[in-house]
Structure formats: structure tokens, C-alpha cells
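S1.2 Input.
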Amino acid sequence: MDSKIINGRALAQKREIELLEKLSGLNIKPKVVSILIGDDPPSLLYTQMKQKKAAELGIDFQYIHLPKTENFANVSMMILKLNNDLSVNGIMVQLPLPKEFLKGKKADELLSQIDSKKDVDGLTGKSQFLPAAVKAVMNIIEEENINLKGKFVAVLGTSKLVGLPLAEEFKKRGALVSSINRETPNIPQITQRADIIVSATGVANVLTGDMVKEGIIVIDVGTLVIEDELSENPKEVRGDVEFATVLPKASRITPVPGGVGPLTVISLMENVVEAASL
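S1.3 Output.
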């Protein structure tokens, strides 16, 4: 692997060893319940990754898959029951939630009902845990010894789960941050000045080589499942970044798959184990 390509799988394996040591010291088997509503391909992929890793670690992972036509009140009641279930340490609701399910309601109306001590995905403002994707990005920053103080960081995407908390974490560590969404004017002019770019939009090729400067550090949080029956790979996983054009300019860059994804999964499992320790 090119030395400028950050190996997320290797970093995740390192953290997994440390996590297994913590697990061996627990008197209980942690249990997490993951609720997936609908059939969003990236959500299905991520849930499968979480389920597989939990099984490998010896964490009890209960997967509840509901149709997008499921009644909002039923899911709300399900969460309240899980809050009161002492055997459950973590509760997750996979985002995004389908419009057919929400029917005009906001996702926060559901997520806010999760007990803050069980909100292992950091979905609510009162959660005791950092969102797994944010934790994964910060782990990469630390492992790569990237000094953030005074650096200009562009964060593409302003979701409450990833983009906004990421921007806050960068600010806490002394970086100058620009949060970018689709309504931001002159996006290329901003990204061309950035020292570090983190993209978390879920839009393929939103960041291209002509939008970055030489020596850029790029962390791609985006995950898309591209389906093409005529292709050799009928289901291909891609990120936000047009890797082939950005790679030549980058000093460091995460691939998709194999970059942020594995670290996000292990970061989530770390939160589950921490919740079981409370």
C-alpha cells in the first residue's frame, strides 16, 4: 500500500487488541440493540459490519430490522422499553430514517428518547459518548501525529451525527474550521485553501483533485453502495472523494473501503464496552 494511504484496518486491529483486554475484565457480556428502519444500502452495509465485529468480540448484538412503513409510535415505545431493560447497555437507531417512516416528524423526536447512558452512537446532544465516526476521525488524527493547532480544516457535510460534532472537535483542538454544505458558495475556493479536508456528505465524487492543494490531508467518511449489474463488481463501495484525482496531490488520504469505516465500527464497540462499564 502507498505510504500516503492511511490503513484504517491496521489502526482498527490495534484498537481491537486493546478493547479485547477491556472486555476480558468485565463481569458481564455487553449487549447492544441496533434498530434499522427501511433498506438504505449504506445503512444495511454498516449494520452488517457492526454485527460481524460484535460477534468477533463477544458482544451481544441484537439487530431489529423494520419496514419503512413501521409506525413511529411503535418504535418510540420500543426504545422506551429498551431504556428500562437492564440487560441492554447500548441502543442505536441507524440513520438516515426514511421519509415514509417519519411522515413529517423529525428524527430528533425519536432519537431524543434514547437514554443518554445507552446512546452509544452519540445521536443526541445529551449523549455521554462521542459519535463513532467522529471518534474514528480523531483517532486517525492522533495516530498520524497530525498537529491541528492553527490548521485550516474544511468539513464537508453538516449533519448532526458527523459533520457538526466533527467541526466542534477540530475547534476544541485549535483548528480553524469551515463547515460546508450544498448551499455554501464558492466551495472550491474554500477547499483549495484547506490544510485538511474531512468529507462526510454521502455524495460520490463531491471532492475532486482540482478542488485541493498539494500536500492536502484528506479523510473520507462517506460511504455509498453503487449497484451496477453490468459491472464486474455489481455492488461497489465508494466514498465522497474522487480518489484517483485527489491521491496524487495528497500527503495522506484514507481509502474507501478500508479507511474510516473499520475504525468507526471499532469506535462504536468501544462505546458499547464503556456503556457496560457504567
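S1.4 Remarks. The longest strand covers residues 31-37.
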